[in-house]
Structure formats: C-alpha cells, structure tokens
Design brief:
This protein has helices spanning 2-6, 18-21, 103-113, 145-164, 171-191, 193-202, 204-215, and strands spanning 11-14, 22-24, 29-37, 40-49, 55-63, 71-79, 82-90, 119-120, 137-140. With 217 residues, the chain is α+β, with helices and mostly antiparallel strands. β2 and β3 (29-37) form a beta hairpin. The chain has seven helices and nine strands, in the order αβαββββββαββαααα. Strands 1, 2, 3, 4, 5, 6, 7, 8 and 9 form a nine-stranded antiparallel β-sheet that branches.
Length: 217
C-alpha cells in the first residue's frame, strides 16, 4: 500500500526514526510510514509481516486540527487462502454527513468497489456507533489482493479530495469533535487486534511506541 500512497501527488512523506520505520526479526518485519498533506494532519500506515504468510496493513488518516471531518482508516489482513479488506469513515455526528463536499460521491464509489467482495462484513462491535455505514468491507480473493490495494488507495484519494474542500470548523464543532476523537482513538487502540498482532510479531516495546506515538497520537 505504501507504494500506491507514495504515488499520490497530494501527500508529502515525513521522515521518522529508522528504529521505528523499519523493525526486523528473524521471521517477521514491520514498517511504518507517515505522510502529511493539504488539510491533512497526518496519514499513518503500518505493515506487519509474520509467519505463515500473515500480513497486516493498517492505515489511518486524520484531518487538520482546524477541521471537524470524518477520519479515514483501512485494514487489509492476509492469511493463507483468505484476505479481509476493511475501509471505514468515522465521525461523531453521522446525521450531518451530507454537509461534507463530495462525501456522497465517496460512498457511491465505495459501494461500486464492493462488487469484488466474496462476503461482506459488518463493522466490529466496538466501533459500530462511530462509523458511517458503507459497503467495502469483507473477504476478497487472494488473487485480487493487488486490486483491493488499488481500490483502498483510490478511496483514500477521493476522501482527501473532499477534505481539501472542507472549510475550517467553528470552535463549538471542534470541541465536540476532538472530545469524540480522543475517546475513539483510546477505544480503538485498546480493542482492535492490530496492536496484539504487532506486539506478537515485533515485540511490545516497538508496538507500543508505534501505536501510542504515531497511529493514535
């Protein structure tokens, strides 16, 4: 996924310490990338490769701190004979989505891309109240993993187009938004399996720094 994101001209790669960006063990490898962009506070992408062809790719994008806008995140989890692709857009006020420029078009594209799913998946229970309903979540064929990466990248690009057109939010909107976002990050970090996978394959010290200081800071 990092290759595709690096091709997007709207993103600027941010340098991070080598001990964080590349982590190697005998049978596993972890990489971390960070980008910034117009109206984008940061996009952080983690890849974990482990035993038995296990592959975990997680990315999360945060709008500029002056804009209350849905966050974008994805997960691609590959194991022998199956690939799970998850894309979500999370926000504290799901009733006001039509106010965001281009968001209906983003959801239309998301639905169009779901035609490659073998089986659809529902959001994990701990985030179901936070995510905007969408279609591109489920199992895809192992032969189509590259196509799935391309579609996730395209959805991020469409999301970023809408973000770039978004105006600054009011202090009242930002107060409610950042209170929700703080709670959401704490909950996701605690409940999701990503941290457990990173810790298992690459060690607790590295995983904790990556998740606390980069992905959910």
């Amino acid at each position: 996924m990092s290759y595709l994101l690096n091709q997007q001209g709207s993103l600027l790669k941010t340098e991070i310490p080598k001990k964080i960006s590349d982590r190697n063990r005998i049978v596993s490898k972890g990489t971390l990338n960070v980008w910034k962009g117009n109206h984008l506070d940061k996009l952080v992408q983690l890849t974990v490769k482990g035993l038995h062809m296990y592959y975990y790719d997680f990315g999360i994008a945060y709008p500029s701190k002056s804009i209350a806008y849905p966050i974008f995140f994805y997960q691609i989890i590959s194991a022998p004979k199956r690939v799970l692709v998850v894309v979500h857009y999370a926000f504290y006020n799901k009733q006001n989505i039509e106010a965001f420029h281009g968001f209906e078009e983003l959801l239309r594209l998301d639905t169009e891309y779901s035609d490659m799913l073998i089986k659809g998946f529902e959001p994990q229970s701990f985030i179901v109240e936070d995510v905007i309903p969408n279609a591109f979540n489920g199992l895809v064929r192992t032969t189509e993993i590259d196509k799935a990466h391309e579609r996730v990248s395209a959805l991020f690009e469409k999301w970023h187009e809408g973000l770039k057109a978004a105006p600054n939010s009011t202090e009242e909107e930002l107060g409610a938004y950042h209170q929700w976002l703080t709670s959401f990050k704490q909950k996701f970090y605690k409940e999701d399996y990503g941290y457990t996978a990173a810790k298992r394959f690459l060690g607790e010290k590295w995983a904790k720094e990556v998740f606390k200081e980069y992905l959910f800071s």
